[in-house]
Amino acid sequence: MTARLIDGKAFAAQLRGRVATAAAAFTEQAGRKPGLAVVLVGEDPASSVYVRSKGKATLAAGMESFEHRLSADVSEAELIALVDRLNADETVDGILVQLPLPKHIDERAVITRIDPDKDVDGFHPVNAGRLATGLDGLVPCTPLGCLMLLQDIHPHLAGLEAVVIGRSNIVGKPMAALLLQQSCTVTTVHSRTRDVMGHVRQADIVVAAVGIPGFVQPEWIKPGATVIDVGINRTGDGLVGDVDPRAVEVAGAITPVPGGVGPMTIAVLMRNTLVAAGRRAGIAVDPAL
Ligand SMILES: NC(=O)C1=CN([C@@H]2O[C@H](COP(=O)(O)OP(=O)(O)OC[C@H]3O[C@@H](n4cnc5c(N)ncnc54)[C@H](OP(=O)(O)O)[C@@H]3O)[C@@H](O)[C@H]2O)C=CC1
Ligand SMILES: Nc1nc(=O)c2c([nH]1)NC[C@@H]1CN(c3ccc(C(=O)N[C@@H](CCC(=O)O)C(=O)O)cc3)C=[N+]21
């Protein structure tokens, strides 16, 4: 059997189309466009590429894009002062500070300074708490994008066994929270787990967010399982995921890298910006987003 390839790129394009329609309706009602501010510190080439593609996607969705590029030696105080200005700016609905930050800056101090209602990355502890307790908030883009792809394949997620590999605040933990909210039976495995393979073998759904190229072996996968590969690893062979490509021979459905989760992350960022704008302005946005 060979797995169905989940076309994240096409799914993301559809989502961006729906966001653009809803953004136009917002602009009509609010008399201004939704606005996203992206802050980049330093000149890491990969981060520069992401920031540029986020800016392009923002404009294409009919939203305002504010880019702030700061030099790598900017002080933490200066960066926090910029966050304060963006928090106070009525034309800014979403704020994203590109990670990682240079070592001399405390990421936590910066993230916790962002107004939780403008935190379109969903990284603020207030949003993590809202997700954990089932309140409306802003949900991290990558795991929400993964959930959308999963719901397309499994309209009924309730009762399925899901294994999340990785427990970062950015991907693994919010992914597990979302799957639990959908009534999956969720297991999170990590570097201290005794038998990662043993857990993965049981899973109807595997989400790999490890950061090790080709980590998940085909023999670990239950035949027919759905596999979501979050990994973005730059190697001599180009961009590769956290799942061994031979897994296509065992899985029922699998996301490719590139063209899987990555494009969804940016599309959900657009969606989160529109949702934040709607809530801030008291304007209803399409709930199907
Ligand atoms: N497609 C996209 O849009 C995005 C992709 N990514 C990619 O996703 C991947 C994960 O990112 P992120 O969560 O930020 O990474 P982190 O490095 O923060 O987390 C990696 C997790 O994997 C776990 N881990 C490491 N080694 C093993 C092992 N041998 N067995 C089991 N678990 C292990 C770690 O465990 P422990 O906690 O015990 O150390 C940790 O929880 C990366 O490739 C990243 O580039 C990330 C964000 C967005
Ligand atoms: N505050 C913050 N928020 C983030 O969401 C954030 C961040 N910092 N730092 C870095 C990671 C990584 N990330 C990706 C976004 C898009 C692709 C993406 O579009 N990938 C394409 C390929 C792109 C390529 O070829 O390089 C794909 O997988 O098809 C990947 C990874 C967001 N991140």
Written account of the structure:
Pathway: One-carbon metabolism; tetrahydrofolate interconversion. Keywords: Amino-acid biosynthesis, Histidine biosynthesis, Hydrolase, Methionine biosynthesis, Multifunctional enzyme, NADP, One-carbon metabolism, Oxidoreductase, Purine biosynthesis. Catalyzes the oxidation of 5,10-methylenetetrahydrofolate to 5,10-methenyltetrahydrofolate and then the hydrolysis of 5,10-methenyltetrahydrofolate to 10-formyltetrahydrofolate. It catalyses: (6R)-5,10-methenyltetrahydrofolate + H2O = (6R)-10-formyltetrahydrofolate + H(+); (6R)-5,10-methylene-5,6,7,8-tetrahydrofolate + NADP(+) = (6R)-5,10-methenyltetrahydrofolate + NADPH. The chain is an alpha/beta fold and 289 residues long. The protein has two domains: 32-115, 3-Layer(aba) Sandwich (Rossmann fold); 141-261, Rossmann fold (3-Layer(aba) Sandwich), CATH 3.40.50.720. The chain is built from nine helices and eleven strands. It has helices spanning 8-30, 45-60, 76-88, 107-111, 125-133, 141-153, 172-181, 196-200, 261-281, and strands at 4-5, 35-41, 64-70, 94-97, 161-165, 185-189, 205-208, 226-229, 233-235, 238-240, 253-254. The chain is globular and about 50 Å long. It starts with a strand and ends in an 8-residue tail after the last helix. The mean pLDDT is 97. NADPH dihydro-nicotinamide-adenine-dinucleotide phosphate binds next to helix 9.
